[in-house]
Amino acid sequence: AAEKGHIVEEAKKDSLLMGQLRKLINIIDDMRDLGLNQHINLPRIAVLGQQSSGKSSVLESIVGIDFLPRGDGVVTRRPLELRLNHLHDKTAKPWGVFPDEIPGKKFFNFKEVRNSINEL
Length: 120
Prior knowledge:
Layout: H1 2-33, H2 55-63, E1 96-98, E2 102-107, H3 110-119
Antiparallel strand pairs: 1-2
């Protein structure tokens, strides 16, 4: 029972940490939107690791949406840049875009995002 309680406590800490990380990312994105990155180096998160070491899982945990390709072997074959923006409108649906690769299209279906990543 003590071990189960410890696991629950660790899960609560992880959830709190992820919530704080999301807040920090939103603040950094707001500063980037204001153009401060032209004057100071704003932090970025880089996820690096060996094949099948959980990089995609880390990113999906931060984003809170399952959208990256899964499978055996090399799945995400290219670098990805993700930019998170907090939506204050609780009724707004999250979306993904590929501004350079697929200009002008918003993806509201994250299976389509996953498929697009596979195709790029």
